[in-house]
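FORM 7B: Structural annotation worksheet

SECTION A. Query
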Amino acid sequence: MAKKTALGRGLDALINMDEVKTQGSSSINEIPLSKIHPNPDQPRRLFEEDALEELSASIKQVGIIQPITLRKIDDDHYQILAGERRYRASLLAGLEAIPAYIKTTDDENVLEIALVENIQREDLNSIEIALAYQNLLESYNLTQEALSERIGKKRTTVTNYLRLLKLPAEIQMGIRDKKIDMAHARTLVTIEDPTTQLEIYELILEEGLSVRKVEEYVRAVSSGENLRDIIKEKEALNTAKKGGVKNTTPEEFELLKKHLSKFFKTKVQLTCNDSGKGKISIPFKSDEELEHIIAVFDQLKK
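SECTION B. Predicted structure
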């Protein structure tokens, strides 16, 4: 049985290895920077200025260690397949030409090659990867399963990245700018309400919440608790601790909450203020859960 072609095996699986010889028989060519153009479908969008400056300084000292990879458009134009960061740094360094491999490839493979090259070098952030996956799905009418095979990644990995694109734009920018990491984002995706997602996102930024703490908030919200009530309770606890005031939710109330939650088989909410006033809420997610709660009350009457 013939082997399947997969991007995960490397660029050679996508590129016609017959190279254009522009200088004798050498496969590496000095190409003027004026003839080189970035790939408009390059998945990587962010190039950190400080890192570019450092690379530029290195290039001034020792030159380009690893040639970039180009494809020839015509006699005066080459498009970058891999190495845009080195190209940009060379411009900053004031070079007129840089070494490059010249390869032939079909238009339909250019985005795939750029994506694989960046993923293999771990140069893309999570949102760039997600957008690149989405672009590949739409451009080539692929299923997620087919895409996972072509890029050599698990189907679940592809799905997890694509789900990030369902998050509000502000959170996507936070992921892109590394304000939160992938683990935080994957937890936020499990919440359906964008407003709640943004509220928890702001808490992550303000309080530096761990992934475990975010998971606790998400579980509480998913069980029917109101995030604002959770935050108010937390603030009240912090105020009480700072001011030496008696805890507004003493240990016995916490024990009662756990007992009621176990009894009704759902997470019961119990709040109480300094004067002793409060309320008990029993959330339910379905008609079946409501019927169970009513049955418990009926049993108590007996």
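SECTION C. Observations
The chain has a mean pLDDT of 77. The longest helix spans residues 227-243.

SECTION D. Sign-off
Analyst initials: ____
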